[in-house]
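Support case: NAP complex. Customer-provided input:
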Amino acid sequence: MPTRRLGDATLVPALGQGTWYMGERRGEAEAEIAALRLGLDLGMTLIDTAEMYAEGGAERIVGKAIAGRRAEVFLVSKVYPHNASRQGVVAAAERSLKRLGVERIDLYLLHWPGSHPLGETIAGFQALIAAGKIARWGVSNFDPAGLARVMAAARAAGSACMTDQVLYHPQARGIEFDLLPLCAEHRMAVMAYSPLGQAGALLRSPALGAVARRHGVSAAQVALAFALRHPHVIAIPKAVHPDHIRANAAAASLRLTPADLAEIDAAHPPPDRAEPLEML
Ligand code: NAP
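Agent response - structure generated as follows:
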């Protein structure tokens, strides 16, 4: 499994596992736990979750999946913006730790920009780091101007933001114009969420299909290789079906050629100007 460096040079796998929509139906819990474990076996040891997903249900599934395997996992969770006051962020993290059944979250993200001052949220993150309850922090759904404010507030507090987790796939390429270069300049990995476009129209793209046929792989695998072609991008596809998990792990070794990328560019052009950050 290729790796990526976070802002503090910590190495993490380039391909992780998402958990949105897990923990919603009791009857699917067993399959979801097995899915995450299979993903761990295949090297996708970064797991992304959030207090929002199934209102804690996804964190409980993750907790069950990683029980007995904590040391293998790089665990990412997120705080709701409305919980991101100085005290609120600490209380939210403590609830997440309980549901996850762990003593520490490896990377804790502010899920999207909210109304609590960034300085307060960062002070909460710093208190959590000092208490050993999180190892590092970052943000999600921040556009370049917002991320610049985060980095300035972090510097002022003597702290550092480790990543920005944002929407990124061949039909949502806006970040290539400004956010990706900004993060690369600061040696900060970007986490690409919904890299498969939530298995919607993206996976029916004729261009991705043509590239996939040339390589004898699926359109989903091409989408993951597209995200991972960038040395600062981590992709976190969510999959429950075992065939999907195996296919996703295998995509880590798929290399797209210049001709493949030109075909994708022709169908899904890269941005030629700044675009508002898309988010789900
Ligand atoms: P996604 O990963 O783009 O797509 C998930 C869908 O793709 C599922 O229906 C899954 O089916 C299917 N799938 C997975 N692998 C496949 C394959 N090889 N071939 C065909 N279909 C495949 O969408 P996502 O869940 O929205 O995004 C991934 C993760 O990013 C989330 O789970 C979450 O952790 C994170 N996220 C973060 C934010 C944020 O605001 N920070 C927003 C959205 C997502 P099965 O499950 O049936 O296998």
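Residues 120 and 264 are 42 Å apart (CA to CA).

Case will auto-close in a few days if no follow-up is received.
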